[in-house]
Amino acid sequence: MLSILGSSNRLCDGLTRRELMRVGGISLFGGMTLPRLLTAAEAANTERNGPAKSVIMFNLLGGPAHMDMFDPKPDAPAEVRGEFKPIDTSVPGLQICEHLPQLSRWMHRATLIRTFSHSFNSHDPLPFMTGFTDNKPQEQAMPTDPPDVGAICQYLGLGPNDMPGAVCMPCFPGSGENGWRRRGPYGGFLGKQFDPLFTLCDPKFDREPKTKYYDPVMPVGEPYPPTADELPQMTANRLDRRRSLLNQVDREFARVQRFGAVDTMDHAMQRAFALLTSGRTRDAFNLSQESANTRDRYGRNLVGSSLLTARRLVEAGVPFVSVHQEIFAHYGHAYDMHANNFGMLKDFNLPLLDQVVPALLKDLDDRGLLDSTLVVVMGEMGRSPKINANAGRDHWPQCGFSLLIGGGVKQGYVHGSTDRIAAWPTSHPVSPPDFVATVYRLLGIDPQMTVRDRLGRPIPIAHGGEPIFEVIG
């Protein structure tokens, strides 16, 4: 029997449950049973041949107004079509919003999905990060939730050993709203050891908003990785104890060597400790190594700095990075524009989007990384066709967009069409499972692969979705 830190509560696989579960914080073993370890070890040995080696997922939190951005309806009634005019793009016949002139020049490299559709009316990235929806839109992240794409990347051991397999910036979604943990970017039922590395941030604002929620002020700052004592429920002393735990496991390996999966557990522990102290991990966050011109192209704000850091992480081999346009008190409701929809888009959200995404694409392209990096730009839902009395648009998960660039997607392609008021898909609706299955396919991960939940049931990672082969180049 393996005894760790003085306790000896035997498990059927020879390990002690109480002490392993006590690791906490960056829990290395939580929920990791022997069958799950064996499955992970077997899956990690499978060959991955997808065109995308990494994913950068940019979440426009709040639900961006698809008809005001990427699906204009100039012939719709005035109460639907809004204030903006469409402009031509680098794809003949394709028009997008007049306030996205830089992005319009990249559309020949992109796939535009106009029919992302579901019924999960909640400001969580759960649908497009996991492919899963349920009838609990007001819940916080739950340990029974399914793992997201980043967690599966970590589960499969993708990426360098001294780098995290997934990073979430600039903080966990909901961190700016009194710590509400929005569902999506977590290891879920696989355990906390497959959570991404959540960065921290301390944004500054140069003025007070004129009105609450709908007068956004630019957040200025950079994401930064946590130190050992900044991790939840973790101090430097406890980290030392975890190193002691690792040493004890190493000493006892000979006694449990008949369980081949122990090698996987040791690797997971080594990797978790390595990313806390890795010079390469922290170097990726050092934006002082970038030129002033590069910093200016992205914009010296929290969103631009996060996407620039995302490029540096991808360059270092991290397979999955998510950047969330987080809601802060001064910043307002991001893309959740129940009022002042057109003012917030014209004066803030669209100029920001039109700066940071083209800067990222050019940077990746110049470095030869765009063909192997899938860039995803989308929100959790679209907005209602009819403009409300406050010049806003309300929630509308029935239809939204996803912009995909690089990483093996078809170039200059529009997938799906909507009705005359952009309310419903009229062709090729895309469900969350099908969308996530497509991301997995591009990464070279079998979307039909299963992982076991806490009850031991095999759960397909794409929840039954099928890849959309029309968008794969």
Average pLDDT number = 85
Intertermini distance: 53 Å
CATH superfamily: Alkaline Phosphatase, subunit A
β-strand amount: 5-15%
* CATH architecture assignment: 3-Layer(aba) Sandwich
Principal-axis shape equals: globular
Q: Spell the H/E element sequence.
A: HHEHEEHEHHEEHHHHHEHEEEEEEEHEE
Radius of gyration: 22 Å
List keywords for this structure.
disordered N terminus; globular; two-stranded antiparallel sheet; 473 residues; alpha/beta; 28% helix
Would you write up a description of this structure?
This protein has 473 residues and is an alpha/beta fold. It is built from 13 helices and 16 strands. The chain has a single domain, classed as Alkaline Phosphatase, subunit A. It has an 8-stranded mixed sheet with strand order 6-5-7-1-8-11-4-12, with helices on both faces. A hairpin with a 6-residue loop joins strand 2 and strand 3. The N terminus is likely disordered.
